[in-house]
Amino acid sequence: MNNALFCTIIIPIYQVERYIGKCLKSVMAQSFTKGVECILVNDCTKDESVRIAQKIIDEYRGEIPFHIINRPKNGGLSAARNTGILQAGGDYLYFLDSDDYITPDCIEVLERTSRKFPKAQIVQAGAQATSSGFEYLSLKSKKLREYSEDTEYIKREMLMAHFPPTAWNKLVKRKWLLENHLFFKEGLLHEDDYWNFFAAKFVSAYAICKEDTYMYNIRPGSITQAPNEQNIRSRLISASDFMDNIDDLCRHEQLAVVYKLLIADYRVLPGKESRNYLPLFTRLKSMCGVFGKIAIFFVLFFPKGILRNRLAKLFHDKIIPRLI
To answer: Sorting pLDDT into bands at 50, 70 and 90, what band is 1?
Structure first.
């Protein structure tokens, strides 16, 4: 594939026959197409997604070249993205999930910002969601710097989700990603949160454009929205890996990320299932200051019913992370 390309859009495909058409057509409708390619990675889907995609591509008469890559076995979203990264020819990568779609000016807006701030390793735009509770994805009302080379500021904003902690809806410099081995960890849910935590350690220039250019589709019954076995396993592995890699820059914010990760499921799981979290809470407590140790001590001894009410949720989401 052409190494002189501006951007490679990477779309993993798995069981999305209801959504892939709208996703693909949103790419084909882009106002900026110069130097843009699109790679679709078939992760051994069992439905008609690939056939639908191929039909739409065959009928397309625009300038964007589309490539379908078939993985030999199903590996999940992270594996599909990694396959796309290794096949990409663009200077920038743009990750698009196949059940989502983008506005017609999405790549144009991001390309314009990347030209304005050529040093930026990440160029971020805003997004909207099909359900409430995801207002943090939009940047319109946030008081954020349009561009920064302040590594402490960038890392803090990424960790605290002021810059949305998603892999999608941003241009990512491919060379920078490869040099820092920022591939997606395979076999986990919440792979974007995992990637964001480690990417924050290496970003030295970050740019944003406040336009909402991405529509995030919240699917009912999504596996990432409920504390099931795979979800719990992913959180435990992520929390352990994060604590293995805590460094001094924005240490407080890194510990707060771990706390939020652990408390999300711990407060809703029955006692027997939540015991797997106790060793990690104990480890986190050992890494905190005095106030953090006291806060976690009380969390572990609160009756679960108290942890579940709305006021307690606010306390755990907003107040305790400031004490960690």
So the answer is: very low
